[in-house]
Amino acid sequence: MKHSVCNCILLLLLSSSSVSATSDAFDIDESTIAGVQSAFAKGTLTSRALVEYYLDQIRTLNPLLHAVVEVNPDALDQADQADREKTAGTAAGGGLHGIPILLKDVIATDDRLNTTAGSLAMVGSAVPRDAAVVRKLRAAGAVVLGKASMSEWHNFRTRNAPSGWSARGGQSLNPYVLLEYVCGSSAGSAIAVAANMVSVSLAAETDGSISCPSASASVVGIKPTVGLTSRAGVIPLSPRMDTVGPICRTVADAVEVLEAIVGYDDERDGDAMKEASRFVPQDGYKQFLKAEGLKGKRVGILRKRFFDFPRDPTKKMAFEAHFATMRQKGATLIDDLEIANMSIILDSRKSGEQAVMLAEFKISLNAYLSELLHSQVRSLQDVIDFNNKHRVEERIDDLGQSTLLAAQETTGLGPVEQRAVANMARLSAEGLERLMKENQLDTVVAPDASATSIFAIGGYPGISVPAGYGERGRPFGIFFGGLRGSEPKLIEIAYGFEQATKARKAPSFLYDGCASTGRVPC
C-alpha cells in the first residue's frame, strides 16, 4: 500500500505539472486541429512550439503510460520547415500543415524511425519507402512525431499476451484508470491522444484495433471501409480485413485526417482499393460534419447480446439517455434488432475469420519482409526463431508465441481457407446487409467494441465516439457502423451525437484499487 500511495502522489504531481500546462495565449491541452490552426494564423503558436510541448509530454508521461516507442529525431526540423512555409505563404492546403501526428508502429516511414510491429526482431530493419498514407500526410504538411506502441504483431503473437503489450514497448496503460489496459492492438495510438501526448494519431484495424482502444481510452476512432485507405507499406495481418484510420479526440479532427489519407494512388494497393475509391465523395468528408446530423436518420439498436450491463448500471442508464437524445435530435430508433447467425459471427473459429487471418498473415508478412532493404528476419519462421533465441530480453516471461506458430503451420489459401472466405461473405450478406436493407437503416449501434467482428468479416466501416464513464471511471464508447462506403452518413451521425452529448472528459491519471487488484504492479 505504501508503494501504491507513493506512485499515486508521483503521478498526481506529473499530471498537474504537464497535463494542465497552458500557454498565455493558447491552451494546448485538449486542443483541436481547428484551434491549433487558428493559433498558427494569429501568431500565438508555432509548429515548433507545439512539437516541443508534445515531446515534453512524452518525456513526462510515457514512463507511466508506455504509449510511444520512439520519437522522431527530425520532428523539430519538420516543424521548423512547416513554420517557414507558413511565413512564406507556401503551406500545403488543409488543416494538417504543421500538425504533429503519431503513427502506429506498423506504418512504415522511410526515415530514422523504426517500423517494428512491437517486435524486437524488427528493430533496425529498413523499409524501401514511406507507406502510402505517410506520403499523403507529408504532402499535407503534417509532422511525423514518432511511433505509437501496440500489441505485438497486431496482438497476433500469442493468446497469452495482455492487450497493449509488446516485447519492444512493454505494457501500455489507460490514463483514466491506470490499472486498466487499453484493448486492441492500437493501444498506444489511443492512449497518446487521450493523454494529450500528441494532437492526432494514425492506427490500423483488422478486427477491433481502432474501435476498441478508442472506446476504452475515450477518444474517437474511424475504421474506414476496407480499401478506402491504402495499406501499402503497412505491416499486414490480413489484407482482406486490414484498414488504416485515424484516432483523435474529436470527430472533426478524425475526419480531417481521413480526408487527407483516402484514395487510390499506389499500384501496390490492388483491385480492392480501386473498387473502394469510388466511395470517396467529390468534395471530401468535412461537408458531412453537421451538428444536426442525427435528424432523419434510421438507427438500429443491436439490443440482444450487447446492451446488457448487469455489473454496471451506470453504463446502462447512460446508453438509455443517449438513445433518448438521439430521438430528441430527430433520429428514428429501431430497437431490439438482432443479426442472423450472430453467435457464429462472434466466434472467429466458426465464422472462418481465424483460419483466414492465420493463413493471410503468414503469406502477407513473408511478402512484406522480403521487400525490406535490411532486416534481421526475412520470414515468419525467422521471427519465431528470433523470439526463441532472445526470450531473456523480453519484459514478460512465458508468454510464448502460440499464434505465430499456428500461422506458420498454414500452407496458403487452400480449400479450408477458401470455404472460410465464402462463409464470411455469406454471413455478411445474410447478416448485417440483410438487416440494414430490410429495416432501411443508416447505421447500427453497439457499445464499445462488442460488435467489431460483424464489421471485420465484411470490410464494413464504423466510428467509435466517447459515450461516458462507468464503474470506477472506466471510459466506454458507442460504435456507429454501416455498409461499405457509408462513411458520409456515419460521419453525420457520429458528429451529431458528439455535439449533442459532449461526453468526453480529459483523463484523471489515477490509480484505482491498486493494492487490492494485483493486476499490474504499482
From TrEMBL:
Residues 50-449 form the Amidase domain. Pfam families: Amidase. Keywords: Signal. It comes from the Eukaryota. InterPro entries: Amidase_dom (IPR023631), AS_sf (IPR036928). Residues 1-21 form the signal peptide. This is Amidase. The lineage of its organism: Eukaryota, Viridiplantae, Streptophyta, Embryophyta, Tracheophyta.
